[in-house]
Amino acid sequence: MKRRTLGWALALAVTSTPAGAASLYASLDRHGQLQISKAPLAGGKPFDPHRPHVRAVARPVPVLTKTPQAASRWTAMIDQVADEHGVDARLLHAIVRVESGYNPQARSPAGAIGLMQVIPATGTRFGAVDLLDPLQNLRAGTAYLVWLERRFKGDLTLMLAAYNAGEGAVQRHGNRVPPFTETRRYVEKVSALYHGHAQQ
After folding, report:
1. 181 in helix, strand or coil?
2. Active site residue 99
3. Given 99, 149, 182, 188, which residue is catalytic?
4. Which residue range is the domain that position 168 belongs to?
5. For the whole prediction, is pTM greater than 0.90?
């Protein structure tokens, strides 16, 4: 409502100001009332009433140009594990961010543990002894991801769906994303972060 009032008042000022007049300054006071003056006002912005106003358009900011602050302590380890397994570190960051928010002590109600929220049976399957050890957790979760990549022929959507719901669930649904709301949201979130389209 304040913006509309400001717009009408500026329009009135424009129509009542003769060409060649001195610069005007406009601002809103602490009560939301428009202040217009020929002298500079505190917080006021100069405007020329005879030039068309062009509204600035906000530009989208890439999401993964900077990883979250919580990620900084794990970046070197994630890069190391990604290099060991030939996986894009950005993908591991996206998974860790969605899975645990970079909390190495995270535990889910389903029993998943650590940075990559690895189920104990999956951890054992891929060589982890202690899933609360961040390095073991990252290695087991990444090894599972690589296994899923081979199983689903590099289809990232199916890999992520299987990481969330299990490969059996994907297979039972004809090698498609299972119709689980959580799994579909998970795939969307990780994919968006990985490709840099998510919002902060």
Report:
1. helix
2. yes
3. 99
4. 69-195
5. no
In Å, how far are 21, 46, 50, 110, 161 from 34, measured between CA atoms? 20, 14, 19, 57, 54
Residues 79 and 127 in one domain: yes
Instruction: Give me the pLDDT at residue 16, please.
Output: 44
pLDDT over 90 at 61, yes or no: no
Residue 96 sits in a domain whose CATH number is 1.10.530.10
Tally of structural domains, the chain? 2
Q: Which residue has the tokens 């970079």?
A: 102
Q: Where are the beta strands (DSSP E) in the chain?
A: 24-28, 34-37, 45-47
Say if 61 falls within a structural domain: no
- Tell me the per-residue pLDDT of 89-121, one tens digit each, with 9 for 90 and over: 999 999 999 999 999 999 999 999 999 999 999
Classify residue 56: in a domain, yes or no: no
